[in-house]
Each structure stands twice: as C-alpha cells, then as structure tokens.
Amino acid sequence: MKTIELTRPPSEEKPQLKEVFTPSSDFTENRLWRFAKAHVSAHDFGHHELVSPWSRTYCSVEPYIIAANRQLSAMHPIYRRLNPHLRYKIKMNALARQGLINAGGIIESSFSPRKYSMELSSPAYGPGRFAEKRNGGGDPEAEHGLRLVILDYPFAADGLLVWSAITDWVSSYFAHYYAEPSAVVDYDKLRFSGPRFATADTPTRRTCRGDPIS
C-alpha cells in the first residue's frame, strides 16, 4: 500500500507531529491523501530546482569564481581549467535573478509554495555550507572514498562513478603542478576559504592591482 508520512518539526510553541496518509475511498480521507501528495510534490520539486542546482551549485560556486578572477593569473593552470566551465556562470545567475527567482517570477508563479518558495529553500545556502561540503561524506574505506547514505540508490551510485572519474582526472592533472598538499596550502592565492570572501579588505574589481581579472 502506498503511504506518505508528513512530519512537522518541533518548535517552541508546538511539539513534533507525525501523520501517515494513505489512499482511501472515503471522501475526506481521499482529500487528505491528495493534499499529502501535493505537499510531497512541492517539496520534491522545490528541492530539485532550488536546493540542488540553485543554492548548492549555482550560488555556491559564485565566491570561487570571484576569488579565482581576483587572485589567479589567466595563465595559471587552475584558472585555465576552471574558466571554460565558469566564465558565463555569474551572467547566468544574474539572468536567473531577473526572471526566474525574482519576486513574481517564474518560480513564484509556477511552484506550489508561491511567494514562499525561496524562503523555504534559503536555509540550504549559508555560511556553513562551504564547510559542510569540505568536511562531510568522506570515508577512506569506501571504494571511491565516499560512502552513500542509501546503498540501493542507482542514480547516486552512477553519479558516484562519474564523480570518482572526475576526481581522479583532476587530481592527476594538478599533481603535475603541486606534488604535495602543502604546496597548495602555502600558496596564498589558492586559499579560497569562505571567510576570505567576506572580509572588508578583499580587493574589488575596481581596486585590484594584482593578477588579471580575465
């Protein structure tokens, strides 16, 4: 039998609440079942569009694009690998902010949560997001150095193969220039850390007199 369990997290005013919904021939129960399906669909599509690609990909990569343009020469091997993939990303994000995720835009007009779509998905992006990506998920005993939370998940398993192949290729490429991790740590221009992006004394495009911007 198909079932949907919806959970309301606990708050200061109300305790946690869990309720299971199933298909039913009863009119009221059937309506509740349809509401539950709509609830799941809204969350699933919101996560698919606003969390995975937007918050955790397009937005999260912006600081690295800015840092690379500020700190690296156009001839630097890392910049040469990043630039083909990232050169138009900020422009794409700007267009998305103008017509996709803006107030009254496509997202708010099409998604079930309407004007609350961005508010519901915004916790996926924040200052701790970068540390979470760096420190989470590693398992040296796993085949590819990363253990899946759900083992019977073909989409994730196939994606892990692609991720592993890219990791091996990138590691091999950069090993030609930086044989030891300490060489990267000691090179100031490669310290793409979150706090550095937000510091007030970070040079802007207008005042930067270091490496070329493009």
> What profile does the largest beta sheet have?
2 strands, antiparallel
- What radius of gyration results from the CA coordinates? 22 Å
Count of individual helical segments: 9
Distance between the amino and carboxyl termini: 58 Å
Number of strands: 2
Strand residue content: under 5%
Question: Secondary-structure map with pairings?
Answer:
Layout: E1 4-8, E2 17-21, H1 27-71, H2 77-86, H3 89-99, H4 106-110, H5 117-121, H6 128-135, H7 154-175, H8 181-185, H9 194-198
Antiparallel strand pairs: 1-2
What does this structure look like?
The chain is mostly helical. It has a domain at 142-202. Helix content is 54%, strand content 5%. The protein contains nine helices and two strands. The chain has helices at 27-71, 77-86, 89-99, 106-110, 117-121, 128-135, 154-175, 181-185, 194-198, and strands at 4-8, 17-21. It has a two-stranded antiparallel ribbon with strand order 1-2. A hairpin with an 8-residue loop joins strand 1 (4-8) and strand 2 (17-21). The N and C termini lie far apart (58 Å). The relative contact order is 0.11. The model is unreliable at 197-214 (pLDDT under 50). Keywords: Dioxygenase, Metal-binding, Oxidoreductase.
